[in-house]
Structures are given as structure tokens and as C-alpha cells.
Amino acid sequence: MLNSRNIDDLRSDVAANCRVWQKLCSQAGLPVLVTGTVRDEEYQLYCYSIGTSKAKVPSFHSVKAGLAFDFCKNVKGHEYDDLAFFKKAAAIAKDMGFDWGGDWKSFPDRPHIQWSDGGRYTSAMIRAGNYPPAMPLYGATQKPEKPAAQEPKEEKEDDMLIYHQIKEMPDWAQASVEKAVAKGVINQSADGTVNIYEPNLQTIVLLDRLGLFDKEV
Length: 217
Fold this sequence. Notes:
Oligomer: single chain
Structural class: alpha+beta
Number of strands: 6
Helix content: 25-40%
Shape: globular
CATH class of the largest domain: Alpha Beta
CATH architecture of the largest domain: 2-Layer Sandwich
């Protein structure tokens, strides 16, 4: 299985802009760490089988595409719990022309950044081998004007799964979700409904393993 975090594995134009983004984040005092770049189908299927991915086949993260990377805050114990950090790092990426998973309405993916040419290319198009044009190297020439503002486009997957009850979730996630509910991080209705998309289970479990649900507030 391949699950790379090597920036060189990205498509060359995306890799170059990823490094520019890292430099700009560093200058802004944001300690970013790239945690994932490309993955093969075997690893993607593994992620799907354990409930950490919504799709069985990779798209922007695929080896052939190399159009996306994931990141976190490079501070031990606080890799994913600083929303302001993700928003600031994403703002830099978006200014460069990247799209940010945190803008997706139905299943925000804050650690995810991708090049889809302003949302013109979808996961289905990428899987079909229809890739966006080369991303201009940020800062190499005069900064292009931003396109007219439009609603951020989110990933649409036929196999995206939402859990309405904790008992319906994979065994590895149930205890962490129960803690999140107890802490008030997740709202649960009187009939026990929680409505959590499958990709968000991984984040909840990660926060639990970091001990955030065990801290007194």
C-alpha cells in the first residue's frame, strides 16, 4: 500500500505551489506540516474499510493525479484542535488558487487542500482522467485577478455515508462519539439522533486519542 507524504509525489505544478504555501505559512507564523500527498487504490480501499474515507477509489489524492495534500499544525498534542490555525493556513492557500476542504458544507475537511481550478473539476472527472490545467506558480508573475466569487463546491460522492445513531457506527468509533456527545461537542436529539458523516468519524476518534474529550472544561 502507498500512503505518501512526500511533496515530490504531487504533480509538479501542485508540488511547487505547495512549497510556496509552506513558506508563506512559515512567514505568517503558522507551523504547517504536510501529512499526506498521494495514495494508491489499495490504501484508499483500506481507508474506506475502516471508515476514515468516504470513497473507495482515490481522486485528487490518487497517484496519477497528485492534486491534493493534507496538513496539520506541527505542534504535538494540538495537531487538529486549532480551528483558527486551519482557517489562517487555508486563507493563504485559497489566495494562491487552491481550494480548501473546510469550505465544504456537508462534510468539512479542514486538513485538505486541492487544486481543482476554482472548483471546475470534480472527483468524478479526476477519476475519469480529466485533470485540471497546470496551476500557475504563485508569485512567479503578476498575481492574477481572482475570479468572480462563487459558492465553494464540495465533493459529491454517491457512496458517502451518514450515521444517524451511534449504534450504527463502526465499533472503533462508538466510544469516541459517545464522549464527544457527553462533552457537548456533538449535538444529540432526544431520540438519540446525531447525524455524523462517515469521514468525520476519523477526526472525532483522533481528538479522543489526543485526550481532548477527557479534559475538564
